[in-house]
Amino acid sequence: MAFIKKLAFPRVMAIALSLIPAANGLTIFFNNIFIWREEVQRMTVPLLSMEGTNKSPSHMWRAIDSESVAILCHFFVLTFPLLIGVMASIGIARMLRALVADKATFLKGVCLVKYSCLVGLFLWGFLFTVVAGNWFLSWQNPDLSFLHLDGLLYSALVMFVYFSLHTMSKEL
């Protein structure tokens, strides 16, 4: 019984932390999938066409003025939050099943959540911050300037979960 009490708090905290990427990924996916066409027109088309930037010729060669490409890019980017949410949810389910099991079994679920955090870092740290923010210059467009900051904030959030779970792994 003392063994269960000793493991309960760190394992419950690991599960609670894992809810962050699971809930974040799934809510982002479902919030955007139901307003698909509006999001493509409001965000993806202006981003790829570099609308609202200073239109410098040295930058405009990067612009993509195709709505079909915008739809494909939006679909591509939107698969990542779904992947993050599903991976983290499966990891949570594995942790719940292994709540009183041995460390190795519980860590399989933790590992899956950590992988979901790395996918989140790729999405928000690279695609939002580097590609959208710097390559397509979203920071110059007042309507899209939030992308750069959102990318940084979400990246920090998933890295907090990743490193917290990594640090906690010794105690689980």
What does this structure look like?
- With 172 residues, the chain is mainly alpha-helical.
- It has one domain.
- The chain has six helices and no strands.
- Helix 2 crosses helix 4.
- The chain is elongated, with a radius of gyration of 19 Å.
- The mean pLDDT is 92.
Q: What is the topological layout?
A:
Elements: H1 2-33, H2 36-49, H3 57-60, H4 67-97, H5 103-135, H6 146-168
What are its keywords?
172 residues; mainly alpha
Mean pLDDT, to the nearest integer, reads: 92
Helix content: over 70%
Q: Indicate the low-confidence ranges by residue numbers.
A: none
Question: What's the helix count?
Answer: 6
Question: What string, H for helix and E for strand, traces the elements in order?
Answer: HHHHHH
**Main sheet: strands, sense, barrel:** none
Radius of gyration: 19 Å
Tally the structural domains: 1
Shape: elongated
